[in-house]
Amino acid sequence: MKFIVFPFRSGHVLLGTKYKSICGDVIGVSTTFAHFVYLNSVDSIIELLEKRAGVTANRPPNRMLKEVMGWGEGVALHDHNERHKKMRRVIASALHPVAARSYAAQHRQSTLDFVRNVSISPDKFKEHATNTIGAFILRLTYGHVVTKDDPLISIIHEAVFYFMKGVTQPYWVNTIPILRHVPSWFPGAGFQKIGSRGRELRNRYASEPFEEVFEQIRHNRLPRTSYTSRLLEEKGGVNATPEDIDLVKWTAAAMYVAGSTTTLHVVVVLFFMLALYPEVAQQAQAEIDSVVGRERLPDFSDRESLPYVDALVQELMRVSPPAPLGFPHTVTEDIEYRGYRIPKGASISPNIWGILHDPKHYSSPHTFMPDRYLKSNPDPDPRKYIFGFGRRVCPGI
């Protein structure tokens, strides 16, 4: 199926409802310069992004983001080659469940700080969530303890802002590659100024906290261990090869981008949905009170004893997934699916929102209902879908 239009901001909703009922599970969007394919069903996603991952694991050539801003060296936008495999393995080593348990004390303190700040100024809950999540990731990744008005936070927030501009906004350079060489003073080349600032921030974001850890190791003055320090020491410390240094540097940079925006989204949705559904908040609070009491915060050791709270988290991720259309894949050769030809270079996006609101898999899909996961035959866990597919399942995307 072909449309001569782009889906807009709520395109994932239309693709998963109105257009799916008209056109089916696989929808094609063609322009003069590019082809886009949107997958609206679990079956089509599994077939194209998992079973055929050998030809669908790369990323589209977002020239603005990869070349003009310089993010092509990062994990999320890197083609799936040997370097990308190494980067994913390195990140996975820090995020598997055993490693995650070692962060429990830090997680507990961060949660206390967040709750305290929200109790003081609840109208600023989003700002508090942003700061708490950022501080947690920087401590985990670099051992950096955030201070008031920390300049590193400002640099990283602005760098992520420009990264998201590159992800979400259209630029002609993405469809007409020769524009990459147009000077910034040329009429219509404002993207060059945006890209230049984005590249500067990306360099500072990736380099400054990394160099801080590297110098601490060089002078044997490491105040605390972190993802970066642990990996550098495993690679030989200051004697690590340039390849290993580059690997550690760019996987560390991926941690903030991958973790901050997605976690913040879930926290904001939590506040929103609990305000809309006070009965859900009351039931979750009652379960916490009965299992944990009110003398301490729940922690990971309580998780199995809090089934309703766990179901609530699942439902938050289902009703509003952080990346409703995921990160796009690209096809490295012509392929056929159900009689349709998908040309080499086409972008393929899984409509994660669409499959999480598919009545085939979720009863009353547009109703916020944590109990759906507590039935004798529960609805599917949305965490199977929100972290990506095939060879692009997180870590780092």
Automatic annotation (TrEMBL):
<dbReference type="InterPro" id="IPR050364">
    <property type="entry name" value="Cytochrome_P450_fung"/>
</dbReference>
<dbReference type="GO" id="GO:0020037">
    <property type="term" value="F:heme binding"/>
</dbReference>
<dbReference type="InterPro" id="IPR036396">
    <property type="entry name" value="Cyt_P450_sf"/>
</dbReference>
<comment type="similarity">
    <text>Belongs to the cytochrome P450 family.</text>
</comment>
<keyword id="KW-0503">Monooxygenase</keyword>
<dbReference type="GO" id="GO:0004497">
    <property type="term" value="F:monooxygenase activity"/>
</dbReference>
<feature type="binding site" description="axial binding residue">
    <location>
        <position position="394"/>
    </location>
    <ligand>
        <name>heme</name>
    </ligand>
</feature>
<keyword id="KW-0349">Heme</keyword>
<keyword id="KW-0560">Oxidoreductase</keyword>
<dbReference type="InterPro" id="IPR002401">
    <property type="entry name" value="Cyt_P450_E_grp-I"/>
</dbReference>
<dbReference type="InterPro" id="IPR001128">
    <property type="entry name" value="Cyt_P450"/>
</dbReference>
<dbReference type="Pfam" id="PF00067">
    <property type="entry name" value="p450"/>
</dbReference>
<dbReference type="InterPro" id="IPR017972">
    <property type="entry name" value="Cyt_P450_CS"/>
</dbReference>
<dbReference type="GO" id="GO:0016705">
    <property type="term" value="F:oxidoreductase activity, acting on paired donors, with incorporation or reduction of molecular oxygen"/>
</dbReference>
<protein>
    <recommendedName>
        <fullName>O-methylsterigmatocystin oxidoreductase</fullName>
    </recommendedName>
</protein>
<keyword id="KW-0408">Iron</keyword>
<comment type="pathway">
    <text>Secondary metabolite biosynthesis.</text>
</comment>
<dbReference type="GO" id="GO:0005506">
    <property type="term" value="F:iron ion binding"/>
</dbReference>
<keyword id="KW-0479">Metal-binding</keyword>
